[in-house]
Design goal:
Family: Belongs to the TRAP transporter small permease family.
Distance between the termini: 13 Å
Order of helices and strands: HHHHEEH
Subcellular location: Cell inner membrane
Shape: elongated
Largest sheet: 2 strands, antiparallel
Number of strands: 2
Helix content: over 70%
Keywords: Cell inner membrane, Cell membrane, Membrane, Transmembrane, Transmembrane helix, Transport
Subunit structure: The complex comprises the extracytoplasmic solute receptor protein and the two transmembrane proteins.
Low-confidence stretches: none
Strand content: under 5%
Organism: PS1 clade bacterium
Strand order of the largest sheet: 1-2
Structural class: mainly alpha
Length: 166
């Protein structure tokens, strides 16, 4: 199914991008630590960049975690249930996941628009980090997580085969 394959590709690309972002961020942190230790000169804005980057990295990885079934699930309980009850329990879990990310999307939309329009930033001094990219990444990541719960419902509950697998 096209939606399943598209979801898999997007999840993997977002995960790789998150890994590269974290890798690059580690160099910034090391550079800041070394400049503080040896030069007594901190790199301005490192704290604010790291704070915003962690949120972005988490929302880039969340879709992959959901799609690869790495989110918390009580497998010991599910494995002991009859197939019909298991599917009902999975559907309830997926609907709760979709509801959670729907709330995230609807609750974040106005805040993200406001941050973009008003030019909201974090940090003081030489480097001010804009917050709107982080706020929009929360929305984008939440939309993708919502869609991945739909994909899991299609594959697990309704039995449509995931041909390539994840």
């Amino acid at each position: 199914m096209y939606l399943i394959n598209l979801s898999d590709r997007i999840a993997k690309v977002m995960m790789v991008f998150a890994a590269l972002w974290a890798f690059g961020l580690s160099f910034l942190i090391v550079a800041d630590a070394l400049s503080r230790s040896f030069l007594n000169f901190p790199l301005n804005g490192t704290k604010d960049i790291v704070e915003n980057s962690i949120v972005i990295i988490i929302f880039l990885q969340a879709g992959y975690a959901i799609r690869s079934r790495s989110m918390l699930q009580s497998d010991i309980l599910l494995s002991r249930l009859p197939l019909k009850i298991k599917k009902i329990m999975l559907l309830i879990g997926y609907l709760l996941g979709m509801f959670f990310f729907y709330v995230m999307i609807s609750g974040s939309w106005d805040i993200a628009i406001q941050a973009f329009v008003e030019g909201e930033y974090e940090g003081e001094g030489a480097l001010k980090v804009p917050t709107w990219p982080t706020r929009f990444m929360i929305i984008i990541g939440s939309v993708f997580c919502f869609l991945n719960y739909i994909v899991l419902a299609i594959t697990d509950v309704f039995g449509i085969e995931d041909k390539e697998g994840f």
